[in-house]
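Obj: model holo form, ligand = cytidine-5'-monophosphate.
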Amino acid sequence: MPFVVAVDGPAGSGKSSISKEVARRLGFGFLDTGAAYRALAWHALAIGADTDDAASVISSLSSFDYRIGTDPAGYAVHVGEVDVTEAIRDPAISAVVSRVARVPEVRAHLIELFRASMATTPKPGIVVEGRDITTVVAPDAPVRILLTASEAVRIARRSAELVGPSADTAGEQLRRRDQADSKVVDFMTAAEGVTTVDSTDLDFDQTVEAVIGVIRTAQ
Ligand code: C5P
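Output (holo structure tokens):
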């Protein structure tokens, strides 16, 4: 098993971009688990499943042919032959992904895929980021980090990423998604043994350095 760095945090905390850069600098693999839930939401919509109906979501799993690379350099997400790397970032996907992710059968199915990806990465280590990595997916990881930032800063970062919606819409969506998601897993407070990195007053590079500092201490 490679050296696992588990990173959790709320929407807009910068976990994906920070984790990917940390992985790149350390020569580690990178796994964005939120992208898998997003890819399933994309697939469910594409085949006309009802995302409000758990049974309909569960049945969409049987045709969910999903592939995600663990190389931070060539990061791409595919469903079947379709490259959905960009499409899964659409606000329409963000709006429904929590409904898909709250279904226990979905979580069990994806967690198995995550563990398989972790075990087979060709790199010496892997940074895995999401909401339940430190607590459910890899609770025994040698490094477990909760990446946080104040809500105002997270909303500002998320709205800067989006092209279409106004800051208000982005902020409202982020709040709603965190509320829905935290009913399923707690990623707002650090579990025992998890190190909190608060990026509110840090820029991108300082946050990357802070995370690498935590990893170095454990290695
Ligand atoms: O990290 P990101 O915002 O892309 O995650 C998209 C969605 O996937 C979250 O809002 C949440 O519903 C779900 N998710 C999850 N567990 C994870 C990662 C993401 O439920 N480990």
